[in-house]
Amino acid sequence: MSQYPSRNRQQRGFTILELLIAVGIIIIVAAIAIPNLLRARVAANEASAVQSLRAVNSAQIGYLQVYPDLGTYACQLSYLGPPLGSTPVNSTAADLIDVQLASGIKSGYAFAMNCTPPASNGTTGYEVKAAPTGASITGSSCGTSSGRCFYTSYQGTVYIFNGVGSSDGSPYSLSPIS
User: Fold this and answer.
1) Contact 159, 139 (CB under 8 A)
2) What was the pLDDT predicted at 173?
3) What does the alpha-carbon distance between residue 1 and residue 4 come to, in Å, rounded to a whole number?
4) Residue 135 or residue 49, greater confidence
5) What is the pLDDT of residue 83?
6) Is 21 a domain residue?
7) Which one of 17, 46, 74, 97 has the lowest number of neighbouring Cβ atoms within 10 Å?
8) pLDDT at position 142 over 50
9) How many CB atoms within 10 Å of residue 148?
10) CA of 56: how far to CAs of 30, 46, 95, 104, 153, in Å?
11) In the structure, what pLDDT confidence band is assigned to residue 139 with cuts at 50, 70 and 90?
């Protein structure tokens, strides 16, 4: 008898070649799926940002109705948010948007709001910009793979905000979202 086992006996387990083929297939499937997953995540964050801007518009209308004596829109997101602790609702914590949006960061987007100067009739406005976290709110990186930027104002329309100066000399261009 030979000291080496017979080749006819059944082997147990997988060969190295079979394992390498399985790992290769997994890598190919992951290479196809991961970019699609990332695009879906960016699209979901963009949809959340647009909805958050619409929520700010609705909250500003509510703010004007609840605090008509102020005669102005809320100039900070935190004014539209919930009060801290057991503090009652007031003009600096109106409880009209959720705490996450009031903090200025929600679903991968950073939000910046400010009031516009009074018009000749004494009314003020507001504008809100949303940019992907990590992107510049001025829009220099808007429209990159990290997502698009968005803008809204007291007029109520939500726009895609590219942040790049246009040919007519305006600081940025806007495209309305339907």
Assistant:
1) no
2) 67
3) 9
4) 49
5) 93
6) yes
7) 17
8) yes
9) 24
10) 38, 15, 12, 11, 9
11) very low
Contacting residues for 140 by C-beta, under 8 A, at least 6 apart? 163, 164
Whether 128 maps to a domain, the answer reads yes
Residue 158 has pLDDT above 90, yes or no: yes
Query: What pLDDT is recorded for position 94?
Result: 93
User: Domain span at residue 113?
Assistant: 16-176
Query: Within a domain: residue 8?
Result: no
- Give the bridge partners for 113, in sequence order: 128
**Average pLDDT estimate for 52-77:** 92
* 105-131 exposure pattern, b = at least 16 Cβ within 10 A, e = fewer: ebbbbbbebeeeeeeeeeeebbebbbb
Give the rounded distance of the alpha carbon of 99 from its chain centre: 15
More confident residue, 103 or 85: 103
Question: Are 93 and 79 in contact, with CB atoms under 8 Å apart?
Answer: yes
DSSP string for 107-169:
TTEEEEEEEEPP-TTS--EEEEEEEETTS-TTSTTTTBTTB-EEEEETT--EEEE-----TTS
Domain count, the chain: 1
CB atoms within 10 A of CB 132: 23
Answer yes or no: is 102 within a domain. yes
Which residues touch 60 (CB under 8 Å, ≥6 apart)?
Answer: 73, 74, 80, 126, 154
For residues 101 and 111, the answer to whether their CB atoms sit within 8 Å is yes
Give the dihedral of Cα atoms 83, 86, 89, 92; nearest 10 deg: -40
